[in-house]
């Protein structure tokens, strides 16, 4: 038996003992998780600075602050979420009670990415804890300081039988995916997501896949251009574009193209200075492989703003590119960096063909003052989630499920949806024994007559 076998068996033993089933236990673990974050706040800021050069503003807003909000929301509503849910019973079930119970899956595997290494590790964990599961966490090998800190924090806060961290590279992930988990939650690229799904299918393990895609931002001619530019610059350059829901490319109405580009340049410089590479608060690219991948894109099309890069700091200035099409390599995959291709359109209907080139994006953003056009976009395009006249902010609303569709993901989470993701809705009929209807049985003379009347209502 290898170490993973014994680790999983120990967690299965704890789960089968029923320790995680009560509200008291789960709430206590969530409180411990929050206290863990509070105790290590300075360490968290330091680790994320070392791994990604994240500013304290970005850490608080997109990593720590989000987690505090998620924990508080879960603690506030957890008892209600856990309660059995009574539903109506049909006439054919007279005397019976129908109830939905929220059943934990058991031992879960959480595989997290490098771009938001704290938030995207612990946000799913909140759902796993709330749902009454145990968890084995595999953080990214690319963010060594943050991953090591997560292991240290988890080890000092929770017993290994309940929650533990396993570190390593691809071979470790592959070995974990061969284990008999009860649920797998994966956040990462579509390419790796396919591998996770294939591995899980061999054991029919239920999964959530939080992936990505080429999320468009569409600026129509009636948009408030200055405000659109500000919100797009913020959404695109958060974490230097290394965000799964960052605007990947812009579709701008031809009539406002020039004014939009000018406004966008102005907002970039207002937020990050004229040369963000020299700005200590500007996030770096995660590693040299991704830096090279992104700088290779700079040879395509025509750079209309930015384009500078620094190999030593692994930073790339915010860059706007035009004269590209869907055959360009930059349009073949998710960019995941501070480069924004700009394409134009004349009629709103044209955007359908663009979005279909990389269909089912994780997010879509549309800027227009016309609510009828907004409704048209919502109804006629397929995407995971969207903002009208904003970017990113749908992700921060814990009352909305966050997730993709098709190539951008399977399943959703955040708030109550995290609890639902990590629990099975178990349907139960509690039948009365005080009486029994004879018509349900084949030897009843009136069975067919009664059933016809009941079922054809």
Automatic annotation (TrEMBL):
The active site is at 210. Pfam families: Aldedh. Residues 5-428 form the Aldehyde dehydrogenase domain. Keywords: Oxidoreductase. PROSITE patterns: ALDEHYDE_DEHYDR_CYS, ALDEHYDE_DEHYDR_GLU. It comes from the Bacteria. The keyword Oxidoreductase applies. InterPro entries: Ald_DH/histidinol_DH (IPR016161), Ald_DH_C (IPR016163), Ald_DH_CS_CYS (IPR016160), Ald_DH_CS_GLU (IPR029510), Ald_DH_N (IPR016162), Aldehyde_DH_dom (IPR015590), Aldehyde_DH_NAD(P) (IPR012394). One of its GO terms (molecular function) is aldehyde dehydrogenase (NAD+) activity. The keyword Iron does not apply. Belongs to the aldehyde dehydrogenase family. PANTHER family: ALDEHYDE DEHYDROGENASE, ALDEHYDE DEHYDROGENASE TYPE III, ISOFORM Q. This is Aldehyde dehydrogenase. It comes from Alkalibacillus flavidus.
